[in-house]
UniProtKB/TrEMBL annotation, chains A, B:
InterPro entries to which the protein is assigned, alphabetical: ALMT
A GO CC annotation given for this chain: membrane
Similarity remark: Belongs to the aromatic acid exporter (TC 2.A.85) family.
Positions of region (Disordered): 421-443
Protein name in UniProt: Putative aluminum-activated malate transporter
Segments crossing the lipid bilayer: 42-61, 67-87, 94-113, 125-144, 151-171, 183-204
Topology with respect to the bilayer: Multi-pass membrane protein
Lineage, broadest ranks: Eukaryota, Viridiplantae, Streptophyta, Embryophyta, Tracheophyta
Record field: compositional bias (Polar residues): 424-433
Source species: Rosa chinensis
């Protein structure tokens, strides 16, 4: 439309062409942005392409079994469905696929033999019955939450393989060959996918979870560090507050539960890599995540007062301003330091001074509220209530920050993070504070 | 362990046996509970079993192509992977699978022909190149958010089919036959799955979304209806408050975003059924869901004060008690009526009196705060602040409830819900209130 506005002489076809070109350019830019936002997406696409080309060429040049057919097909199919973005997801799918194929193939062969024993008349009836019973049970098992979390794909493949093998209608020897072919090609396919996934620029989902938890803390910290200035000073201009991106970042934390649970489940499939050991305390990450989310809920409530239309007069606000700004920014700093020490995988107690500062400020704020807030004219009562609500939320946020700090310290000792200053003798007071967590961790 | 405590004479084997039996019984009880919680799970398992038995027997008795083999395998495979719990998910997977197989098979045959034209030397190189380029591009497309939401499975199958067909290494006629077989068996499998899914006790994901949105509103309503009594009266006993299940129900609403988005995406695949037309306004459901979730965040903040350890003395609480209880319970009633009218799919303005009542109570509460809260002794200031925060949250909840009501009214007119009293002339005042939404809806 825009293109034909200026030039009315243009033939319609050219306008259509330009519009199409515009769309293609827009699509191209979108693809470019996708790649720039996370270059690992491009790497992943190339990795999948490589794995598929490898497995295709393997079967093209060197048919493992007599003639091309079912065998190569299953291997290619396996690579396509098993290869996921992260190592954990790929290994999880691969193992699920292999294990359930082995078990189901064995059971399928057994069912087939049992059915053939009953003679020509009984065979189809028995096979139909076996398939019905097996499919019903396995499908129902997929509803068990613990199964669904880690073995859902395995149960699906179990269903599949059992039906394929038992229904095949071959003679016994052929059924065994079919089962063997299926198992071996699926192993070849899974190994190809896992090998390419692990050895070329791997994306470890455990590291992703680790980083996401740290990032989420930083998002909360960004909000808290800016909140004080934003709430107490800019309001006079009458402009809409709280719209800057660093203030809105915390919103994504509110809905992070699902992705964190999935990541922790998949991380358990990953072998040890770098600083992450095989039995890394993934559950403790989920605890830190839950506490971070609870803190985000409080921040969501705080954000309300930031964006609310009813503005408190500056003279009421200024009463609580001093200590409130300190609480908010000190909690922000504490969270930021926790996030940093998590990223560096170091044990740290350096956040304690910030929390202590914020607690001091909280006492000050309480004193201010006791002494002066209710001395304001009664007309200001509602504003007093709003400022009181802000203060009350800030107290909650201190409590949350403390809980997060405790959980991160516990994580640091469970996951054997480095001591930050190994040459200096540990500060006795700090180590006493951390005491109980260390004890729990050693168990 | 418990079983061997009483009877020391027992042989170890019997103890082990009893322990095993205990575990089996426990597992059985868990399965029973799964089925009782949602009997549709049992129905679904039987449906999958039926569909698989049907397709297995079809190919067992009547091999569609010369000899059993690839053909039947693909059909069985299709039933297993396409059959999902809900109609929307099953149709979505089925259509994705069919469409992408058709397009990829055509492209694969083309690529194969192009490669064979280049002679024996060039063929494998060209095929490898085609597979690499196709797999790279399609895998990258899976990162496009709009694609991922609805066509992720289709892109996976596209990858798969293209490789299978182009790599197969057959002569041209055979490749075409392979493509045709794959397409036709996948259509047979998908149709079997969809037919059984739709015609035997179908679970419509659109209806699930509809009910979940209503249920979530009811959960908030339950909290609000009980909150007043719980917060203001029971506290004296010193027992822990806010632990009853109806008060904790809202927690699941906090993390409902992901599942609602998925449901709305899948609901679009479903044909019209009952009161749900093909172009049912699923997006508006998501808006209602978002507002409900925002209200749940406020309730989470309110719940904090319910469970907090610092107890406000009753004389401070009693100042705000009257209007607070009214606001909370009236908002609860308003939400409950909205949920009920959604369930019945009727247009309703009957919630307005409740919102009006809560607004009156809010004015009263503001007056109470203005006149008396700050007259308390200064020692109570901090408690005053806490009660002020509760009052402030209640004001927010009124605002949220109003927004939810507006969104539900808009949904009711977009989705053509029934008028609740078609014989009575519409109340002019109410319809004026609803005016702008009706106008938007008619567009």
């Amino acid at each position: 439309m825009a293109s034909s506005n200026n030039d009315h002489d243009q033939v319609k076809g050219a306008g259509l062409f330009q519009r199409l070109r515009g769309k293609i350019v827009k699509f191209g830019l979108m693809l470019k942005k996708l790649g720039q936002d996370d270059p690992r997406r491009i790497v992943h696409s190339l990795k999948v392409a490589l794995a598929l080309t490898l497995i295709s060429m393997l079967f093209y040049f060197e048919p493992l079994y007599d003639g091309f057919g079912i065998a190569a097909m299953w291997a290619i199919l396996t690579v396509v469905v098993v290869f996921e973005f992260t190592v954990g997801a790929t290994i999880g799918r691969g193992l699920n696929r292999i294990m359930s194929t082995v078990v189901a193939a064995a059971l399928g062969i057994g069912a087939h033999r049992l059915a053939t024993l009953s003679g020509n008349q009984g065979e189809p009836i028995l096979i139909g019955l076996f398939v019905f019973v097996e499919a019903g049970i396995v499908t129902f098992f997929r509803f068990i939450p613990q199964m669904k979390a880690r073995y859902d794909y395995g149960l699906l493949i179990f269903n599949l393989t059992f039906c394929l093998i038992s229904v095949s209608g071959y003679r016994d020897e052929e059924v065994i060959r079919l089962g063997f072919e299926r198992v071996s090609t699926i192993i070849i396919g899974s190994c190809t996918a896992v090998t390419v996934c692990v050895f070329i620029r791997p994306v470890w989902i455990g590291a992703e979870l680790h980083n996401q938890i740290a990032t989420n803390m930083e998002k909360l910290a960004n909000f808290l560090e800016e909140f004080g200035d934003e709430y107490f000073t800019v309001s006079e201009n009458g402009q809409i507050r709280g719209k800057s991106s660093s203030l809105q970042g915390y919103k994504s934390v509110l809905a992070s539960k699902g992705s964190e649970d999935t990541m922790a489940n998949l991380a358990r499939w990953e072998p040890g890599h770098g600083r992450f050991k095989f039995h890394h305390p993934w559950k403790q990450y989920l605890k830190v995540g839950t506490l971070t989310r609870q803190c985000a809920f409080k921040i969501e409530a705080l954000n309300n007062y930031l964006t609310s239309e009813t503005q408190t007069p500056q003279e009421v606000k200024s009463i609580i301003q001093g200590p409130s700004v300190v609480i908010s920014s000190e909690c922000g700093k504490a969270l930021k330091q926790l996030a940093t020490s998590m990223r560096k995988m170091t044990k740290s107690s350096s956040n304690d001074p910030h929390i202590a500062n914020s607690k001091d400020a909280a006492e000050e704020l309480k004193a201010v509220i006791r002494s002066s807030l209710c001395k304001l004219p009664a007309a200001d009562s509602l504003h007093i209530i709003q400022e009181g609500a802000v203060a009350s939320l800030l107290f909650e946020i201190i409590r949350c920050t403390e809980k997060i700090a405790d959980a991160v310290h516990k994580l640091a000792s469970q996951a054997h993070f480095n001591d930050v200053k190994p040459t200096v003798t540990p500060n006795q007071e700090n180590s006493v504070n951390d005491g109980p967590h260390h004890v729990i961790a050693i168990e």
